[in-house]
From TrEMBL:
Family: Belongs to the glutaminase family.
Protein EC: 3.5.1.2
Gene: glsA
Self-association state and partner proteins as the record states: Homotetramer.
Domain of life: Bacteria
UniProt enzyme class: hydrolase
NCBIfam families: Gln_ase (TIGR03814), PRK00971.1-1 (NF002132), PRK00971.1-2 (NF002133)
Catalytic reaction annotation: L-glutamine + H2O = L-glutamate + NH4(+)
Name this protein carries in UniProt: Glutaminase
Length: 307
């Protein structure tokens, strides 16, 4: 692909979404997220050659929310390897991101690390070796390193708001603790989880952070994780990255992807590009409505679907 043409494509996509009237609904169950205007739209594409192509509000930080589950999974696999899979599954749930129903019949083992229950167990695994403060520090260092950007920060107001309103997450964590699948005190596990969700990143930073998933575990020529592990994380993003909307995302876009209720999506075209889009309005499954549409247009114009 000509570099000129990817710049044209991202500019066109940003322009097309600017005037879209159906923009989805901004998440309001975490109060600071409710204040973000639904007019925002950003896109950043990092190609394999390292070039960065952006349009719209691509430099504006937003709450990455559940996209942090990809980075948390990467850290937990680094800490305990495949032992992680004794405590969390690798199957799509087909249920909402904050659902509790499957835990009752499935012995407190969440279906996958990308639903809330799964990410809470992932945090508990990290706390098997670290204090919450250390785990949060490790996460910050990790995203800053893979993105090559020391300015990435956690939005403490968002973390506090999640703490104040996260009753479902408290229920999930307590329920799993009753099954013996959460070991650390629930408030410490959730404090860690909420701080991960409250990471604030721009599309540019997020797309840069996704390079290790695009390039078989490497970022900037440095090995972050093994190629096999990067491919497996991508497989989970493809099958589970959009909750009960994952099949539709694979059908329409055909790329591994992970969404967050802040309206961001990180998508990976293996060997080709790491892509971040942001539009705060969500579809009923909690995934960015225009973000998905923008990715659909991008793969249509570039042929980047893995299928
Ligand atoms: O725990 C929560 O509900 C939020 N901090 C994260 C949820 C989320 O991003 C779901 N994504 N689409």
């Amino acid at each position: 692909m000509q570099l000129g043409s990817i710049d044209t494509i991202v500019a066109e996509i940003a322009e097309e979404t600017r005037t879209h009237t159906h923009r989805g609904k901004v998440a309001d169950y975490i109060p600071p997220l409710a204040c973000v205007p639904d007019s925002k739209f950003g896109i950043a594409v990092v190609l394999h050659d390292g070039s960065v192509h952006t349009a719209g509000d691509a430099e504006e930080p937003f709450s990455i929310q559940s996209i942090s589950k990809v980075f948390a999974l990467t850290l937990a696999l680094g800490a305990v390897g495949d032992q992680l899979w004794r405590r969390v599954g690798r199957e799509p749930s087909g249920t909402a991101f904050n659902s509790i129903v499957q835990l009752e019949t499935e012995h407190g083992i969440p279906r996958n690390p990308f639903i809330n229950a799964g990410a809470i167990v992932v945090c508990d695994v990290l706390l098997g070796r670290l204090q919450p403060r250390e785990a949060i520090g490790q996460m910050l260092r990790f995203v800053r390193t893979v993105a090559g950007d020391e300015t990435i920060a956690i939005d403490e107001a968002v973390a506090r708001a999640e703490q104040d309103t996260g009753f479902r997450n408290m229920a999930l964590a307590n329920y799993m603790r009753a099954f013996g699948n959460v070991h650390a005190p629930v408030e410490l596990v959730l404090g860690t989880y909420f701080h991960f969700c409250a990471l604030s990143m721009s599309c540019r930073q997020l797309a840069l952070a996704g390079r290790y998933l695009m390039d078989d575990g490497r970022a900037d020529g440095h090995s972050v994780i093994s190629a096999r592990r990067a491919r497996r994380i991508n497989a989970l993003m493809m099958s589970c990255g959009h909750y009960d909307n994952s099949g539709d995302f694979a059908y329409r876009i055909g790329l591994p992807g992970k969404s967050g209720v802040g309206g961001g999506i990180l998508a990976v075209a293996p060997g080709i590009a790491s892509i971040a889009v942001w539009s705060p309005g969500l579809n009923p499954s909690g995934n960015s409505h225009l973000g998905q549409l923008a990715l659909e247009r991008l793969v249509h114009r570039t042929g980047w679907s893995v299928f």
